Amino acid sequence: MTTAIQQSNVRPTGFPKPFLKWAGGKTQLLGSLLSLKPKNFKKYIEPFVGGGAMFFAMGHPNSVLSDSNEELIITYTVVRDQVEALIERLRRFSNDKETFYEVRGWDTAVLSPIDRAARLIYLNKTCFNGLYRVNKNGQFNTPYNGASGFNFLQPHVLRSESEALPKQLNS
66 - beta bridge partners? Predict the structure, then answer.
């Protein structure tokens, strides 16, 4: 008999891998958390979706995703509705310190939703430890991770998650 503690490092297979790394993410706890979910339930509501590990692992067809981070919800909406345009936009970025600080300095208020989503994914994948952090003015301020050349573009992951995302996304 396997206990929940023994299962805590077991990652279930057959579900999309989160395309974002998020502080407080549940990926490492999925084995334990999934063993606690009810066998039957009508709706899954995720109030703080973050990277979405629990949502993607459960794959519940009637789900609602929410988060107070507007950039995050815009990104999920673009991944769901415009994944190919997003992938094309991400292809324009290069992983180097100069590009990172240029993209980090963009004013999100004047960007299209696709540019906002591409910016968030790019910064998340190329900043220090995937940490989303903003200052008092709401400006992203996590430094570059120094791993130039790392491939931040994962089209297969984005496409897989695009198909799994629910209609209802709330900020």
Answer: 170
User: What letter does residue 46 receive in the DSSP assignment?
Assistant: E
For 88, 91, 136, 158, the CA distances from 154, given in Å and listed in that order, are: 11, 10, 31, 6
Residue 47 Cα to chain centre, angstroms: 14
CA dihedral angle for residue 100, residue 102, residue 105, residue 110, rounded to 10 degrees: -120
Placement of tokens 């100069």 in the chain: 98
pLDDT one-digit tens code per residue, 58-93 = 888 899 999 999 999 999 999 999 999 999 999 999
Q: Where are the alpha helices (DSSP H) in the chain?
A: 4-7, 30-36, 53-58, 70-81, 83-90, 97-104, 113-126, 155-164
- Report residue 42 as tokens: 């009508």
Q: Which two tokens stand for residue 68?
A: 């107070």
The one-letter amino acid code at 67 reads D
Domains of the chain with CATH codes: 16-170 (1.10.1020.10)
The length of the chain, given as a count of residues: 171
Tokens of 115: 């540019």
Rg from Cα positions in the chain:
17
